[in-house]
Design brief:
150 residues, mainly beta, Pnp Oxidase, Chain A, 1 helix
Length: 150
């Protein structure tokens, strides 16, 4: 039942209005996925424990690679050039910011990928009888994910 309180005006945020920012430029993407993190579990039982089971403790934090999908535009090779710069353990790492925006274009949630670099780029598939937009996929590895609310 509704009592007319302010809580009735709180709606989940729509996920279709977002922006992705790289140092020096913004890029338009169709889809972003992989914004997750987890703490690995360490199971432990000391030898004189009277309980015949292990205890669980948080271990190392693990983050997934972030996958970004975007349309291909003529002459737009900026991510391929970034990927081509990878040399034996030398890569230009960047801070990537993903912002979920409200209807006014203001950020409501911000995910920051620290020391991100392209681990995989997948070009579009091609079909002679297709009528879809050409889409490429960029997969970013990173060394930490932080979340902030605006």
């Amino acid at each position: 039942m509704s009592d007319g309180s302010k809580q009735d005006n709180n709606w989940p945020l729509p996920k279709f209005y977002f922006e992705v920012t790289f140092p020096g430029f913004k890029a338009s993407f169709q889809e972003v996925s992989g914004l997750d993190t987890e703490a690995q579990i360490i199971e432990y039982r000391h030898g004189n424990s009277k309980v015949f089971s292990t205890i669980k403790m948080p271990g190392l934090v693990k983050t997934s690679n972030v996958t970004l999908k975007k349309g291909i535009f003529a002459g737009d090779n900026i991510f391929w050039k970034w990927y081509d710069s990878i040399k034996m353990n030398i890569i230009e790492r960047k801070t990537v910011t993903i912002k979920l925006l409200d209807e006014g274009g203001n950020p409501t949630m911000v995910w920051t990928l620290n020391n991100a670099w392209p681990t995989k780029i997948t070009g579009t598939d091609m079909k002679s009888d297709g009528n879809e937009v050409a889409v490429e996929t960029l997969e970013l590895a990173h060394e930490g994910l932080t979340i902030a609310n605006s």
